[in-house]
Structures are given as C-alpha cells and as structure tokens.
Amino acid sequence: MIWAFIVVFCLFPLCRDATRLRLKAGVGRGIVNALGVRFDADLTHAVPGALIVANHVSWIDIFVINALLPAAFVSKEEVRHWPLVGVLAARSETVFLRRGSRGHARVINQQVADILGRGNYVAVFPEGTTTDGTHLLHFHAALIQPALVVGRPILPVAISYWEADGSRSLAPAYVGDVSLAECLRAIIGRKGLVARVATCPALGLDGADRRQVAALAREAICTSARLPV
Q: Are the CB atoms for 158 and 219 separated by under 8 Å?
C-alpha cells in the first residue's frame, strides 16, 4: 500500500497514459501477491477500449482487475471520502457517480466515453454492491449505457475465489457487517487462495439495448463463475 501511494502521488503526475496503466497493473499485482493470492486468469476475450462489467465480491476485486486489465473504475461518490482507499481512488482516474442526479449522470457518461475512446478500459460493478460470491444480484443496466452510446464493446468479466482444495472460498467476501480489517485477516489467513478471472465474449455491438446486454452479461458471468443463473 505504501508503494501504491508513492506511485499514485509521485509517479502518476509525471507519466504518460500507457505508463500509468503499466504502473497501475504493477500495483495491483503487488497488493494481490502480498495478500498471498494467486491468479488463474483467462483473458482470451479481452479487447482494448471495452467497458468491463464484473461481479463484485470484495474490495480486492479492484486490484485483481487492475493487475490483469488496468482500468478506470466507476464508483459511488461516497468512496471518495473513505480513508486511504478514497484518496487512492481519486488519484487513479476513478469516475465518481452521484446517484439520483440526471445532470451528473450525463457528465459521468461523457467521462466514461472519453476514456473508452482512448482505447482504455473502464470497469463497473453493475450489482451496485458486493455479495459473498455464491450468487449474483440484479445488474443495473444504466451503467452500461455510455459504452453502447459510443459503440464500444461490453466485456463481461467473472471473478471468483477458490481454496487450494478446489472449493469456493468465502474468505474474501466483503459483505454485511464484515469490516475491512476482518476481511483482510480472513484473506491473509487462507493458504493457497486463488483469484479466478475469466473474460467472456464481448457484447453490445449488435444493436441490443442496455437491458438485453445487462441480462446477457449477467448470464455469461454466472456461467463462467459457476454460479446459478
């Protein structure tokens, strides 16, 4: 985390876009490795400039995605005020969404479109909150709209966590009354924890509306993460 702050505050302002993305990936890998988590990644369907649509299990999902597909994230406005995490997010090209404001939503949509237009990834968690990883919630289709408007692909990404014995792990789940410290201890306490990341075929380039795309993305993620549809 100290290295992350050094990168964000000291190096990001001096670097070009491509270098910032490489640094962001390095920070993500460093943090995930420091937690003792290994990667099992299938990036077969990854395409530049796509909107990453992922399920949400834990706070480490952000570092897992960044390690493999460094992205700008769309996050709720409240995250900006979180200790430590909020500062890192604000300095890492996070797009903060103020819920309930249509005028602000238009501004956000333009920000997302601009980033995608540069060939970079933007990532959203359309469930709007975390789960324990054993199921998916409803996907909010509005978060997908900016990519459809500018004709960029939607890339479903399934994230799941597994124990060394091959069983699904609940250790990273950041849900309910679980505190950040409790979640961190649970992750560090597991040996051989694996973060499995699977990209699915891109969607949204055949004229489907946002609700159809959201439903298809959810189904694809369910299948890849071995979850019930």
A: no
Q: List the CATH number of the domain containing 150.
A: 3.40.1130
* 229 is a domain residue: no
Tens of pLDDT, residues 22-54: 888 998 999 999 999 999 999 999 999 999 999
DSSP H or E run through 56: none
In the numeric block, which tokens belong to residue 224? Answer: 């890849």
- Calculate the alpha carbon distances from 175 to 28, 82, 171, 227 in Å: 22, 16, 11, 18
Structural domains counted in the chain: 1
In this prediction, residue 101 carries a pLDDT of: 57
Torsion of CA 70, 75, 81, 84, to 10 degrees: -20
Between CA 213 and CA 145 the distance in angstroms is: 10
